[in-house]
Amino acid sequence: MQLLYAPTCHNLSLRSLHTRPKEGLFSSLEKWLHLSVNNQPCKLPPRKCFYLKKTRALNSSVQAGYSAVSTRNAESDVLKALSQIIDPDFGTDIVSCGFVKDLNIDEAQGEVSFRLELTTPACPVKDMFEQKANEVVALLPWVKNVKVTMSAQPARPVYAGQLPQGLQTISNIIAVSSCKGGVGKSTVAVNLAYTLAGMGARVGIFDADVYGPSLPTMVSPENRLLEMNPEKRTIIPTEYMGVKLVSFGFAGQGRAIMRGPMVSGVIDQLLTTTEWGELDYLVIDMPPGTGDIQLTLCQVVPLTAAVIVTTPQKLAFIDVAKGVRMFSKLKVWFVSSLQSPSNCISTCAMRCCSREYVVQQFGIPHLFDLPIRPTLSASGDGGMPEVAADPQGEVAKIFQNLGVCVVQQCAKIRQQVSTAVTYDKSIKAIKVRVPDSEEEFLLHPATVRRNDRSAQSVDEWTGEQKLQYADVPEDIEPEEIRPMGNYAVQITWPDGFSQIAPYDQLQTMERLVDVPEPAPIGA
């Protein structure tokens, strides 16, 4: 028998428990009882006491449910507010981009905290993101305090292939090239690297010119010799002002005197066996020309994009054009082009090498003019990059604009590559949107699998089709699709086969015209 003790209860009158009050089923039972003061304990019948326990339990359950619903509503309010902030590079709100992480809400105290994880620590609009995020969330009526933490995604390449250990934690690899000696390529590479470092990125420089390394002259690290890790048999880079450095000039050998194949091997070893660690950007100072070394670098290393450096003279442009065509064939995108104007340029040269000419001929929309200043040359000769020696100067401002362009374009390229080819399970079709193209089309998975051109599907000698039409079931679905550089995707099928599908080949396949209806959820 349960007892309900009411203090100083003289008379106790009860309303019928069968009559439910207007407050609803889950109103507290005490509101239903009209108690008169008396000192004697009052007893309730067993059925009414059981109802009291059940009501209190239901009250607790409803309160917990209300709290959960309230939290969900609060989260929805915060995310809706944050979705007003649009990333200028992607054209999408920061919630859809997946930037909002670790959202914590204490509605009772009016406190909201979350983390914005950007694609790079050098994001040029990170301060704007932080300010806007604070403002839009603080406008919510129940919010009293907002805490925003800024961070960046871990360094990782988009490339899906088997990368050497040293390159597996590098997000973006930028080639700075001119294919012509003496136009300022090394100066641009070094100052760009230190500009990116000044923007908050983790940066490394690789001097790929074995015959005439420039890096030892342009920087002044305390340790001017590369060290070896005898256990891992890896190279430990030297460092100057927070930027990691590797050059054949730091190997204690001076300038190389060796044949092309040997040089390619040295370049490959220096680049791929170095302990770069986590880098947001690795800037490669490319050697002049379009020979074995350049091809080796472009094919072995997953280049994100390239910066082309030239002077406006026609003679310089002749060699630069060769380099641009090489990068185009290897599916390397261009971030920008720099022209170094001088005072002794013929009218013909200026007309041939104008900004409009560059855009029309090469499709490079981002152009920067870098003035040739005595201080720029003196800084390079003295071992101190100009952007570090005079961070507020005219040259530093130009490189700051170039750095912003590099960061924005690399982010766009990574986004386009990572979403170029996807599988939509609801319609059982592969969606293709080739990077740098507005066209989107659908392919049947079986069509893609049957069009494999590898040695497993087609005889390399005779061209005979080994994979037969009936060998591929109509309902086949890819297990995984991952980007492979800037030119193809790697598709893993249920039978374990890994197919390399270049974008060019995907564009020639038979497309789905009648798009199937989305499959029901759970189908």
TrEMBL record:
Classification via InterPro entries: GBBH-like_N, MIP18-like, Mrp-like_CS, Mrp/NBP35_ATP-bd, NUBPL-like, YlxH/NBP35
PANTHER family per record: IRON-SULFUR PROTEIN NUBPL
Cofactor(s) named in the record: [4Fe-4S] cluster
Protein name listed in UniProt: Fe-S cluster assembly factor HCF101, chloroplastic
GO cellular component terms listed in the entry, alphabetical order: chloroplast stroma
Organism: Populus tomentosa (Chinese white poplar)
Domain of life (superkingdom): Eukaryota
Family: Belongs to the Mrp/NBP35 ATP-binding proteins family.
